Amino acid sequence: MWHHRRVTVKPAVFSDLEMLYFIGLGLGDAKDITVKGLEIIRQCSRVYLEAYTSILTVGKEALEKYYGRELLLADRDMVEQQADEILKGADVSDVAFLVVGDPFGATTHSDLVLRALNAGIQYRVIHNASIMNAVGCCGLQLYNFGETVSIVFWTDTWRPESFYDKIKKNRDMGLHTLCLLDIKVKEQTMENLMRGRKIYEPPRYMTVAQAAEQLLEILQNRRDRGEELAMTEDTVCVGLARVGAEDQAIRSGTLRELASCDLGGPLHSMIISGHLHPLEVDMLKLFSGPEGLTTLKMTDSSTYIS
């Protein structure tokens, strides 16, 4: 005799243990989340949106509408000083921490991972595209990149040049340099800071033109000091804006040309080229101005430099 047993089908469960999920949102808009990431968001009890290392081209409201969930904004203060708030309850129900790009792309969130493990909370990462790999869209080979650098806004009293030395090291080895440009969110004036007033300046996002301008100034400083230069005003560079969005913009040209180009709204990134393969040059020409890339010189049949 066969006995019929009732079989119940359970919905997809990602883990029997409660978890802290780090979920990458990709680079474009609300729809760049992975299917897996979206399913997890919909089953979590709380969902945080990391809001200080990058921005999407759409706002928090558009994400909430598409995900069908309320998002709690986690700014730098919260993640660095009140991490326990995010971890609270992640041992009894799932909590998601959303990061534009990839959770371990341009900014790692290792600190939060270590705190979670110390509190006995398991974690899982759902990856997505990051600026670190999406810059390949300009045609430069990702294998040929050296250390990535950050270029910060200069002030009247603080004008660091340390990123130039890293570009020099990469250029000496023939490697390209990805420059991630400064984002100022929730910045305070010195007066408001001193008085303990939680009043913040409007957000500022560095443009390719501003970054190129600062680099030109550093080149002049080093030239005045009699240093051998790592690059010149004629070195071929690439400006990128809103990578991954429908209106992404790419412009190749000399550093001097990029200092006067307008690539529109944020976020911008810039690449300083190293040794270029003919195929890379052909790709860069797609994004150059009418004058082309005239400063390139061939060192042998398969290498261009500028």
In terms of topology, how is this protein built?
Elements: E1 19-24, H1 35-43, E2 46-50, H2 60-67, E3 72-74, H3 76-81, H4 83-87, E4 95-99, H5 110-118, E5 122-126, H6 131-134, E6 149-151, H7 162-172, E7 177-181, E8 183-184, H8 190-194, E9 204-205, H9 208-224, E10 236-241, E11 249-254, H10 255-258, E12 268-272, H11 278-285, E13 297-300, E14 303-305
Parallel strand pairs: 1-4, 1-5, 2-3, 2-4, 6-7
Antiparallel strand pairs: 7-12, 8-9, 10-11, 10-12, 13-14
Short description:
The protein has 306 residues and is of the alpha/beta class. The chain has helices at 35-43, 60-67, 76-81, 83-87, 110-118, 131-134, 162-172, 190-194, 208-224, 255-258, 278-285, and strands at 19-24, 46-50, 72-74, 95-99, 122-126, 149-151, 177-181, 183-184, 204-205, 236-241, 249-254, 268-272, 297-300, 303-305. The strands form 4 sheets. Strands 3-2-4-1-5 form a 5-stranded parallel sheet, sandwiched between helices.
